[in-house]
Design brief:
Keywords: Membrane, Transmembrane, Transmembrane helix. This protein is an alpha/beta fold. Helix content is 45%, strand content 21%. The chain starts with a helix and ends with a helix.
Length: 712
């Protein structure tokens, strides 16, 4: 309405220009009288004629032009209405509540409903996808998508402000409500209202409507989907235990096993229109269209189980690792993502598929415990690489995860010994001494054999780090779980030694990374590396005790995740001076902790006759709640029929789950679904501002779901 008034005002001023010129001519006439009487008379006559003609023309043209203007406006409005009515885009006008006020022919045709019936309905009754929340109460425009009668539409709802003129009644003495104060308002208020409108008989009022229009995007969506489906997905297939399988198999059957694996892989990939190419004896690359990716997800990469079923006399089952890269801008990026996903799959122990897309990482499989690597080639290579790196630096800062356990501290001691044997300066970052390491921690802080700055805190570590420093991370590969995550940002050289399966959150830009999920503990890995150092490193008994204790705690007294290399590492530490009885005495439990452990076991409930779940509220005592939950979980594995145990501890406002497994159950994949992690036999998860009972219900539901799907 305001825009219309501006146009009318501009038009009126344009028509009044000749009248304004009359005044200018009058001023000119006065000036001409000063020039001469004759000139003044002539100017007067000219001005009079011009004024008379201008006024007559203005009065006659004013009425005529107004008629033409009104006629044009009516024709213009009629034309707009006809255009909107016959417009090929479905269009509807709604009130603020979404009730249909008016629709055009296309809208009525698409909905196959008459205009009269539509105007009795609300838009939310016409389209299920449109809800009351979709209406733009706050925003000016809202958008969404609709699937209707086999077609797909994108809709927009736009707020429209309409100004209209409504008559206002004049005040008269005959109206008692206006004369007195018994009506809707006082007489003074009504006079003020009238005055505010300038005494006009009309005033403006604003109405709000919603313009609803739809665009058919069926073909666009089909082409977009087709383009998406035809994109190429890059993938890799690695045989995890190729060497171990062939070592245990008769030589005459080697070619037969290779042929069977090739046949399984090619037949499986042929079902998804993939091209497979063998890169090496145990490595394959494949390319497939994006549209078949959902098919692979649906059958959960059945190739993993099909290959494991191959048995021609091999003692160990053959396992594969599969990786795929998808949803990146180019095929090269997809291939790089597949390579990165393969590193992640192998770092998690193999026997699984990992899909890495632009925004997420998805895991499939990983149910088996994995095969222990009998060869130590990797340990020797990593040791030599670590030694070469140390020779170029002067300082080493060692750190593990927050609230370090015995494996974290013991492996840190092993690395400290390795570094100092090369004549380099080393420090271990420990911020909090928990009950998990306190029995042996004092052997290093109270001894004169070690420098006072052997163990430092975060602030000291940050002040020491420079370009000539190597930061060594042990027993953890997730940066957020380290003692000092900020230290990783300052360090130019980072080394990672860990035995936990990798997750998507890994320490980036590591100069050297040695992650061996088949190892029982980080102490086992470091004990092997110590034996490959050229220098004859002689461990002190306290150092050997610390590393032996790390293996002992992580394997639950050599009961879980223990292989040949575990016992070989323990034997090396025993020869170095570790005393089994001394270590056992250090880690005996006090009576109060033992009571709490027994109480936690007594509260255990069985789920699916295979999983023991207990809820505890750790009390005051020398044992940390984290260690207590782990001990209870280990203890519950001694119950007959228990394949995995879960202890849920309410620690203030937070909740922690400690999970352990003794059978073929992989507790890592269970904890990952709950936001945690770990490795096949030992895993955990933590929740902030949660209730133990709620977490238990979530865990029970997850176990039932995974059991039905065959994932556990």
């Amino acid at each position: 309405m305001n825009e219309k008034r501006d146009v009318e005002g501009l038009y009126n001023r344009y028509r009044q220009v000749p009248l304004y010129l009359i005044g200018m001519f009058c001023l000119m006439t006065v000036f001409m009288y000063f020039v001469g009487i004759g000139a003044g008379v002539i100017a007067t006559i000219f001005t009079a004629v011009y004024g008379a003609v201008s006024i007559v023309v203005f009065l006659r043209m004013n009425a005529l032009s107004r008629d033409r203007y009104v006629e044009f406006a009516m024709e213009h409005g009629k034309m707009q209405k006809e255009l909107i009515k016959e417009f090929p885009v479905p269009y509807a006008l709604l009130d603020e509540d979404g009730k249909v006020v008016w629709v055009n022919d296309e809208f009525s045709g698409i909905t196959e409903t008459s205009k009269r019936k539509l105007m009795k309905l609300n838009i939310v009754q016409v389209f299920e996808e449109v809800t009351e929340e979709s209406l733009p109460y706050q925003e000016d425009v809202t958008e969404g998508e609709i699937a209707f009668n086999g077609r797909e539409y994108r809709y927009e709802i736009r707020r429209v402000q309409v100004n209209k003129v409504e008559p206002v009644m004049e005040e008269t003495d005959a109206q008692p409500d206006e004369a007195g104060t018994d009506g809707d308002g006082s007489a003074e208020q009504k006079k003020e209202a009238k005055a505010s409108h300038g005494g006009s008989r009309h005033h403006g009022k604003t109405d709000t409507f919603l313009a609803f229009y739809m665009f058919d995007v069926t073909v666009v969506n089909q082409l977009t989907q087709e383009n998406h489906d035809q994109k190429l997905v890059a993938g890799l297939i690695y045989i995890d235990n190729y060497d171990e399988i062939f070592e245990s198999l008769e030589e005459v059957r080697h070619s037969l096993l290779v042929a069977l694996v090739d046949r399984k892989i090619n037949k499986y990939m042929a079902n998804v229109d993939a091209i497979v190419k063998s890169l090496e004896k145990d490595k394959y690359m494949f390319v497939m269209p994006q549209k078949y990716l959902d098919q692979l997800k649906e059958n959960k990469f059945a190739l993993l189980d099909e290959v494991k079923a191959i048995n021609i006399g091999n003692d160990l089952p053959l396992t594969l690792s599969i990786s795929l890269g998808t949803d990146y801008k180019s095929f090269i990026e997809n291939f790089e993502a597949a390579r990165s996903a393969m590193e992640l799959a192998l770092g998690r122990g193999g026997d699984q598929a990992v899909i890495k897309s632009a925004d997420r990482i998805t895991y499939f499989g990983g149910k088996s415990q994995g095969t222990e690597k009998s060869t130590r080639v990797k340990a020797r290579v990593k040791t030599l690489a670590f030694k070469e790196l140390l020779e170029t630096k002067e300082k080493v800062i060692i750190m593990a995860h927050k609230n370090p356990d015995m494996d974290a501290f013991g492996s840190g001691i092993g690395i400290y010994k390795m570094v100092t044997a090369l004549g380099k300066t080393a420090h271990i970052v420990v911020n909090e001494v928990s009950s998990a390491i306190s029995p042996i921690y004092g052997n290093f802080t109270s001894s004169n054999s070690y420098p006072a700055d052997m163990i430092i805190n975060n602030d000291q570590a940050l002040s020491l780090v420079d370009d000539d420093t190597v930061v060594v991370v042990t027993d953890v590969n997730n940066p957020t779980l380290t003692e000092c995550e900020e230290l990783l940002a300052y360090a130019k050289s980072i080394v990672v030694f860990d035995h936990h399966r990798q997750t998507k959150d890994v320490i980036a830009n590591a100069t050297l990374s040695y992650i061996e999920p088949f190892a029982s503990s980080a102490c086992e890995m470091i004990a092997e590396m110590l034996q490959y150092m050229d220098e004859k490193i002689k461990l002190r008994p306290t150092e050997a005790d610390a590393m032996y204790a790390g293996i002992l705690i992580d394997t639950d007294n050599f009961l879980s995740k223990t292989g040949v290399r575990t016992f070989e590492a323990a034997a090396f530490l025993k020869r170095s001076g570790a005393d089994v009885m001394r270590v056992r005495k250090m880690f005996r439990t006090d009576i109060e902790t033992y009571r709490q452990k027994a109480e936690g076991v007594s509260h255990a409930e069985m789920v699916l006759d295979a999983f023991a779940i207990s809820i505890i509220t750790p009390g005051d005592g020398p044992e940390s709640p984290v260690v207590l939950t782990a001990k209870i979980a280990n203890e519950m594995l001694n119950i007959a029929g228990v394949r995995a145990s879960f202890v849920i501890a309410q620690m203030g406002a937070d909740v922690k789950i400690s999970a352990r497994a003794i059978d073929d159950v992989n507790v890592q994949i269970i904890m990952e679904r709950m936001g945690g992690g770990g490795h096949a036999n030992i895993a955990a998860a933590q929740f902030e501002n949660a209730k133990a009972e709620d977490i238990k219900k979530e865990l029970v539901g997850l176990l039932n779901e995974m059991y039905k799907e065959g994932d556990i």
